């Protein structure tokens, strides 16, 4: 797959405890994106954050450490991102999705291995 030039970066901001059916939402999103043939996705777990309710979630407070912030990032063509947005919206009960234009300089698999 060749993915270079102007593309779209989608970030999905959710909580670690968010679910889709019986599965963690971030896992369900990544699996769905993989099945749909996206170039790749990365899940980033935050150590501190707050959302629309202004409740701070941090790994320092045991009481709030069960719902740390999670970001799912994916870069692909604007058309693929736009087409998948309704499905992502259906899977989310809260959170935020952002889109940015990005310029992909390099996207190639390593000939010796591929993650």
TrEMBL record:
The record, for Gene3D superfamilies, names: 3.30.70.120
User: Would you say which domain of life the source belongs to?
Assistant: Bacteria
Q: Name one Pfam family in it.
A: DUF190
InterPro entries linked: N-reg_PII-like_a/b, N-reg_PII/ATP_PRibTrfase_C, UPF0166
PANTHER family annotated for this entry?
UPF0166 PROTEIN TM_0021
Per the similarity annotation, which family is this? Answer: Belongs to the UPF0166 family.
This protein is called Uncharacterized protein
Organism, by scientific name, is Syntrophotalea acetylenica (Pelobacter acetylenicus)
């Amino acid at each position: 797959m060749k993915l270079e030039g102007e593309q779209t970066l989608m970030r999905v901001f959710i909580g670690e405890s968010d679910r889709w059916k019986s599965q963690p939402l971030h896992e369900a999103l990544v699996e769905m994106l993989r099945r749909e043939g996206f170039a790749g996705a990365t899940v980033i777990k935050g150590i501190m954050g707050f959302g629309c309710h202004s409740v701070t979630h941090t790994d320092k407070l045991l009481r709030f450490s069960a719902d740390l912030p999670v970001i799912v990032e994916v870069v692909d063509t604007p058309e693929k991102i736009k087409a998948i947005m309704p499905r992502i919206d259906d899977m989310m009960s809260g959170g935020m999705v952002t889109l940015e234009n990005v310029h992909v300089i390099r996207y190639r698999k390593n000939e010796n291995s591929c993650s």
